[in-house]
Every structure is written in C-alpha cells, then in structure tokens.
Design brief:
single chain, alpha/beta, FAD/NAD(P)-binding domain, 3 domains, five-stranded parallel β-sheet, 17 strands
Length: 486
C-alpha cells in the first residue's frame, strides 16, 4: 500500500494552523488544506504493514484502538498516493457515512494505532480522510442519490445528531421513507450546537443535511418528541422508530452558591455562541465571556471548546480545572503501542490561552468547593482545593480564584428521562436505553430501536456513526425479514 519506502522518505506533514493570536479573532476553521501533491505524499507514508491496526477498532487495555468504523485506511491511502482520489472516495464512503465530520472532530483512534507511530510519526489518516471528501465536494462528486425504489415502510428517527443522521441516511438509501425529528430549530444535534464553529463550520453540517433532503429524507425541526408529539402518535404513523436523542443530561456541580446567575452548563454556553454566530452577530450571544474571569470545571474536549470560545469573546482570564492528575507527556511502559496513548493532550484552546496569557489554563487535581457571591448575588469568585491521588481534598491547599462566569463541562449522565419514559422503555444502570448485548432493539417495547449516546452513553462522533449504521441494519432486518445493508 502506498509507496513501500514512503514512510522513510516523507516526513509527516499535518495541515498548517493559523497562529493562535490570529485565529482567536474569528470563529472560522483555521487549518488550511494541504496541496494535492503533498496529500499524495502523506498517503504514500502508509507502509503496507502486515496487520493494519488502524482499522481494527479493537479493545486493548480497556480502550478502543483503531477505527470503530473499520475504515479501509490502507486501501484509500494507496489510492491517494496513486492519484485515484475518485476511487478513494468510493472506498471511504463504503464504511463512513460522514467523513467530513470525523475528518474534523474525531480524535483519530486510527492514528494512535498506526504502525508508523511505533517508532516514528503516524500517517495523517484523519487529514487524508478529510482531504478525500473535501476534494470530492469541490469536484462535484458528492451528488444526491435518491433510492430508485421505495419499500413502502416508514421510519421515524428521533434526534439528528451523528447517530440519527447515519441511521436515517442508511435507511433512506435502502428505500424506506425516513422522517427525522429534531427538537432544536436546525438539524445536526451536537454537530450543530455542541461543537464550536472553529472545529466544525456549520455550513459543513448544513451541506450534508441539504444533500440528505434532496435524497428524500424529511427533517422536522422544533418538534420535541415525548412532549410536543406523543410516543403513541409516532408509533401509529410509522412502522419503526429509532431513538437517537443523545446523552443530554449534564453532570452538575453540587456546591454552595451553585444556584444563581453566571453558572452555565458548557453545552448551553456553546449553543448560545453558535446561535449568535448563525444569526450573523457573534457579539449578540445571550451569554458572553467578554471582560470576565472565566472558570471552567472539566478538563476534556468540551472544556477546551469553552476555553477557545471564551477567548474569542474577549475574556479577561480563563482557568480550566481538572480533577485528575496530569497525564504523562509521552507513552509509558504501562501504555504500549498500539493501545490508545494515555498522554497529556494540549488542544487548540489551551494553546491559544497560553499564547494570550503566557501559561496553560489548566490546573490539575483541583476542584471547586464553593461559589462566592456578593450581597446582590453576583458571582465574584470560586473557592478551590487540591486533590490527592484518591481524589480526596488536601488540607491547606484552599485557594480563591476570581470568577464572574463559571462553566460546567463535567460530562453527561445519560439521556434525559422523558423520551424513554414516553415509550415505556427499560433502562440500564447508567440510565441508557436497554437492549440485548450487541443489538439495538429497545427492551420493553415493540418497533422501537435506539443508537448512539442514548444507547452506549457519552462517546465519540465516530462511535455514534457506527451505532447509527448498525441500528439501521437491524431496523431493515425487522421491517423486511432480511437486510441488504452491510
């Protein structure tokens, strides 16, 4: 695959990034694409390894290594190198419904398992994937492909995040008539309102929605199933319903002073920023960090997105609190290749904060113990404490940080209750919709299926796409008695 000696001849070249102080002046994506010739060289670095761990999606050391979609990575890397981008597109779309999403926001499990990464730099798999699909869009190769024959079966998909879209896309191409219900005013779920524009421009999401609409998928927005529309009404109108509502119940912060203004869940803060951006005026957001000391509880990707957003809004300072200890900067013997590397990741927002304020915004092994408010109830500071290895408070390490906006990015506890309750579904101990292992048919109901975070808990976009595709196959089998979906 690729050029046999390519990994020796061509150094890894990722897509360049605009300097931090330049890119925080706007909300657009900031990674210019490589030239076609340079992209070919990057494809040529794929080294024809005997066992392509990159596409394995295997569980090693308790974490997944390689692509959960089992993307045919060596095949399309070879096709990139030989200049066969059109054929590479066909191989890519065979396993991945939306490479323009994963090519931007996936943490690249494939690259962590790349054999080149054992003794050097892994292949730029994720960026190669994005290069294939974006060139295809630019050349007009991505065109509507409505099914030639309809089955007469009607399927409702509730939720238009990556799992819902993937499920709807597959079922529609099979010939079923699919209606996607979304409670927000635009389709896309967290792709639209949870991931900031600088990571995933909303025109990219809208472009895919427009294509699916032309292929025959119906989108009904501002419809909250379980509230605006009953489960009974859905089941009376449709032959099957697939619940892809996500894990939208955020983990809260139970500390004194929590109740009151200037405390938001990260997803609400990020959504407000995107709503204002889509309205054409980023400064019109209902909650802005401009001129404020911002503290973010949570050291993950969502917390980093809050850092990047606060900087673009002109915050006075930003601090990100992480309960866990700082991970090693490099792999240790306890985390050998091809396991997922448990190392410290410094993401775009943290890089930007360091450029603005001169230091990494993260404080590790620290949590908030209380919120300080003035006589009028305005948030003025947060009190924190250091934690030991067992996450217990360390006496004498208390500190007060100035804060006028506190953002909670501590993850999610599972799906909201009202949709599973409306359909009378059984739940797992993690509050997800219960199914038999390896299946997507909801326990406790007929003709009801589930996929994505609502089924497996908070996870990655790539897992949501896989679950949506697999759920579509199970729905097709139930409706037709057999399935033509791979």
């Amino acid at each position: 695959m690729g050029k046999p000696t390519g990994f020796l001849e061509y150094p890894r070249q990722g897509e360049p990034a605009q300097p931090p102080l330049e890119r925080i002046t706007h909300f657009n994506e900031f990674h210019p694409r490589l030239s076609r010739e340079e992209r070919r060289r990057q494809g040529g670095r794929c080294m024809a390894c005997g066992v392509p761990f990159c596409q394995s999606g295997a569980v090693l050391g308790g974490m997944v290594s390689g692509c959960p979609l089992h993307n045919l990575v060596p095949e399309w890397n070879d096709l990139i190198y030989t200049g066969s981008f059109d054929h590479a597109l066909r191989r890519l779309l065979k396993t991945n419904s939306f490479p323009e999403f994963t090519g931007r926001v996936c943490p690249a499990l494939c690259e962590a398992a790349c054999t080149c990464g054992l003794h050097g730099e892994p292949v730029t798999v994720r960026e190669n994937e994005l290069g294939i699909i974006e060139e295809a869009w630019e050349k007009g190769l991505v065109q509507p492909r409505p099914p030639r024959v309809r089955t007469g079966k009607k399927v409702a998909v509730v939720g238009s995040g990556p799992s819902g879209l993937a499920c709807a896309d597959r079922l529609n191409h099979r010939g079923h008539s699919v209606t996607v219900f979304e409670r927000a005013d635009r389709p896309g779920g967290l792709l639209m309102y949870g991931i900031p524009n600088m990571k995933l421009e909303k025109s990219v999401v809208a472009r895919r929605i427009d294509l699916m609409t032309k292929e025959g998928v119906t989108f009904r927005t501002s419809v909250d199933v379980g509230r605006d529309l009953s489960a009974q009404a859905i089941l009376e109108e449709f032959d099957a319903v697939v619940l892809c509502c996500g894990a939208a119940r955020p983990r809260d912060l139970a500390v004194p002073g929590r109740e009151g203004e200037s405390v938001l869940f990260a997803v609400d803060y990020l959504k407000a920023a995107t709503v204002a951006l889509l309205a054409g005026d980023p400064a019109s957001t209902t909650v802005s960090a401009r001129g404020l000391d911002v503290v973010i509880v949570g050291g993950g990707d969502t917390g980093n997105d809050c850092v990047g957003t606060a900087l673009r809004q002109g915050c006075k300072s930003v601090t990100q609190l992480e309960m866990m200890p700082k991970a090693p900067d490099h792999r240790t013997d306890a985390c050998p290749w091809p396991e997922w590397p448990k190392v410290c990741k410094t993401d775009y927002g943290q890089q930007e904060a360091a450029a603005v304020f001169g230091h990494d915004p993260r404080i590790f092994q620290t949590t908030v113990t209380s919120l300080v408010r003035d006589a009028e109830g305005h948030l003025t500071a947060v009190e924190t404490v250091k934690l030991d290895e067992k996450l217990q408070p360390v006496a004498g390490t208390e500190e007060k940080l100035p804060c006028q906006l506190l953002l909670i990015a501590a993850g999610f506890l599972g799906p909201e209750d009202y949709v599973p309750q409306a359909f009378g579904l059984e739940r797992t101990p993690r509050s997800c919709v219960k199914t038999d292992e390896g299946h997507y048919t909801a326990c406790g109901a007929q003709r009801v299926f589930t996929a994505g975070d609502m089924h497996r808990g908070q996870s990655l976009v790539v897992w949501a796409i896989r679950e949506g595709r697999e759920a579509a196959r199970e729905v097709d089998q139930a409706l037709m008695g057999y399935t033509a979906l791979e």
